[in-house]
Amino acid sequence: MNTLTQRLIAALPLALVAACGSSPPNTASSSDDAMVYASSARSPSSIASCLKSHVSRAYESHSGNATELAIGSRSDASYFVTLTPNGRGSVIRVTHGASSSNDPPEEEMRFDVARCTT
After folding, report:
1. Any domain includes 6
2. Is residue 12 part of a domain?
3. Which residues contact 64 (CB under 8 A, 6 or more apart)?
């Protein structure tokens, strides 16, 4: 075995330990807590319009360039949908609200989001 190969083999355990001990990336804006996180070629306004036609009690608001929908009770929403434009359409992020209500049921909500984003 040549010297370079021996050095690489000797350094391998150190590299593995360093990788395991590294801190995770900042997840403040990640999709970890999202029920649905996807992208679509459709515009945020098109997706919002479609969702409002399929889901009862959808309340639209805007924050910067993002369109936000609260689904369910206006004061205690079951779901929050954030539609952010990107260069090729939209990024869709759906999270559960603080409400213990599941109105509409999660399966139905996922289906409606899928229907409106394709």
Report:
1. no
2. no
3. none
